[in-house]
Design a protein that fits this description.
Largest sheet: 7 strands, parallel
CATH topology of one domain: TIM Barrel
Number of strands: 11
Structural class: alpha/beta
Helix content: 40-55%
Order of helices and strands: EEHEHHHHHHHEHEHHHEHEEEHEHEHHH
CATH architecture of one domain: Alpha-Beta Barrel
CATH class of one domain: Alpha Beta
Bound molecules: D-arabinaric acid, zinc ion
CATH superfamily of one domain: Metal-dependent hydrolases
Shape: globular
Number of helices: 18
Distance between the termini: 46 Å
Radius of gyration: 24 Å
Length: 438
Amino acid sequence: MRLIVRWDRGSGIALRMTIARPLHGSQRVALGQRVRRAVQSVPIDDIHTHLYDPAFGELLLWGIDELLVYHYLVAEAFRYLDIPYDAFWKLPGSRRAELIWDQLFVRHSPISESCRGVVTTLQAMGLDPRKRDLAAIRRWFASQKLERHVDRSLDLAGVNTVCMTNSPFDDLERPVWIRGLRRHPRFKAALRVDPLLLNWRVAWRQLAAAGYKVSAALNSRTIGEVRRFLDDWGRRMDAGFLMVSLPPTFEFPSRGDTATLIEKAVLPHCGDTGRPFALMPGVKRAVNPALQLAGDGVGLCSLAPLQRLLAAYPNHKFAVTALARENQHELCVLARKFRNLHLFGCWWFTNTPSLIREITSMRAELLGLSFTPQHSDARVLEQLVYKWRHSREVIGEVLAERYVALGQAGWSVSDAELERDVKGLFGGEFARFCARAA
Ligand code: RAT
Ligand code: ZN
């Protein structure tokens, strides 16, 4: 601290002011390193993935071919590939993987985020991607024992638990739940309700086939049965929360099926069980259906429907990630106004270093530590490794800047405080939000 004494000319009284001394260059570097280290070493609870508990057998995707046919890479490969879409889809998975490898790693340098991810992952697993030897990489993956490989992948990523995306509408997944399974302690469940909320015309028949007394009309009996369906599946999965992705056309309130089901079935269920409702607005499904899973796009949303939900249901908990970059600022402002809103993740097309940097800086500046900066959205087990390595790097940089600026302003932070803050960001705050009384 520096003491400054000035004379007030009017009164002739001495004014004493203490001014915080800015950090020296070496102190700034040391503080930045402490922050980055805390981010590198924090165990993560990954709150949204598409991975499955190994008890689901083949639904848990892993290995080099799955890494290569990831839909993010399919979209990129088609920038170069000139075969017809349907010819590509008719090929066996291994052949598709070879075509993608050839286009994105052999004929071009893999500089995109998703391609770099494959390189980071291989390197972390102890393979040498520089050899460009797909056959050798395949042999290595083929020799792995899944059970050990699961723990190794999570450990290499520094991930403690992953949350799955679980759908009672999925014909492969549903029977496993119904048969019963021994849950892996590191895999948590979230109940995904897109088919129910976005395609009621089809969903009601599926519910009816499963024994729920529903009809196409959303009358009180049907609504009661939808609630029973949600209760049954929430319990069966021990789901931490409910989730839905939403198109930019989403409206609330509205007389449409989606809003009616949210108002009359989902929110009462969440109110009774204390489960948060996670909303993911901004996806335009199948803008190019020929690309299949890779064919979804992004659209700017009005956040007015979300604002109305937050205001009308102050005791319900809403976790939100938006797909459009242009929605991020308004979303941060909404989170300042509504404590029942928890922001999470840089989702899908925003999961790139430049946008993670921008979005995380904005959130930290506007919300402090009360958000979850990232989820992995991993669909293939080993993607956890790169998604978290890349995200930790950028988030560590952003936080280092914030803490150094805070140091310059005159604050100091202990290692225990840093650890507390970082744990909050990577799972702790979300857990606290979920546990909050509804
Ligand atoms: O990121 C993705 O893999 C997308 O295909 C979607 O699954 C998205 O994350 C979602 O949860 O809808
Ligand atoms: Zn997802």
